[in-house]
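Listing S7. Sequence submitted for prediction.
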Amino acid sequence: MSQNESTHEKADWLDGSGLPHLLRIAGMAAHPGKLGIVLVALILTLALGTILDWCWSIDGGIGDQAIAQFVAARELDQPYVEPTGESGVFAVWRDHEVRCVRALLGSWSGEAPAVLFSGGSRYHAAPCPAITAAISGCSWLVRQHPFYFIIFGVVSLLIWSWGGGAVCRIAALQFARDEKPSVPDALRFSRRHLFDGFFLAPCIPIVFAAFIMLLMVIGGAVLRIPVLGDVFGGLAFIFSLLGGVAVALLAVGLFVSGHLFWPAVAAEGQDAYDSFSRALSYTFTRPWKTILYAIITFILAGVCWLVVRLFTYASLAVARTVVAFGTSPFGWWNRGPTDEPMSKLEMLWPRFGPDALYTWPGSGQLSWYEYISAFFIAVFVLLVIGLMWSYLISFYFSGSTVIYFLLRRDVDKTDLEDVFAADEAPSDADSSPKSPSLPEAPASPGEHPPISSEDLAVDGQAPD
């Protein structure tokens, strides 16, 4: 009996930790429909950034170390001067954020600082350098290129609200009901809840914070007025302090609960404000459970990322090595930059390694017709690399959805199988009001009312 009780307690402890449910994320993230949706959204985002870079770089680009110099200038309390170069804003920001993500996922191995800033050794000493570096990159984009940030942010949010919402919807049905909905169904659900749910949910804390800061600016303008401003503005300064507290709470809520906004819409089928309130309520009610789930998910993400990246590298290495041998079965070419021997594929796909899976061949190294094959090789290799990153993004959305279900169970005591289904929503026929039946006209005096079949059944006579 005691052995059964201990086994039952152990099972309850494991279920309470969420570990059995969180371990499902690795398999859920590999859903082909999710990978396809994320890959398309990723391609659209990269295309958007490339187009904006082309528009912004007409008068000249910026240097590759712009963000590193921005961080160094802030640390040394010196004015920042944007370095000139040939890179675009999105290209610099994208490369920086990719390094931060790789450092964050590889931080458990102690090699994270090596992939951050190349010139900011003092910056490596900061706690959680990968997260701090990612925030600094976003701060550089907002402060130095605000108009660029607004255009890129709004369009990217629209792209990922549709794609990310569909991925969260698939993950919700996978986790709750072990169903695998089709991609068109998930995209239709995401489109129906696009603007009133997925797109608006991340904007609510930002709009609230902007409105509060606008009131604080107005209070500062009142304080500038002589005499009256000194009296009334000074007395009302307490509201500015309260506004600062509210803005700080909204910022913290967006940081710790933002990943639950879209899963809440996907699981409940409600509007943006409902998802915003649910996400904040669950994280602030169960902060330690939120941290526990996040730590387990982060460790699992690091392990899965390592496996997926090694598998991708091995696949590309085998393909490159075997095909390279076939392109020069009778000897090497002496066509390199320094006239060293190499195969034709090494010319078409020059650089390859664990940290650089693909590099476009340099200008002037190939003939015009060789650029045709180099282009197709680039497309296929980059699609494979894109699928690798798509798995990581799919893991993020799937993990956030599972964490939402676990926190909802802990706070609201809701079953994990409870999820909004479109076929359970009231149809138009059921929700439309029924027309009232007209009352029968009363019988005239001396006329018997009509006899129904029920009356005949009561009298024992069957109707004809």
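Caption to Listing S7: primary sequence and predicted structure tokens for the chain studied. Residues 370-412 form the longest helix (43 residues). The longest strand covers residues 61-62.
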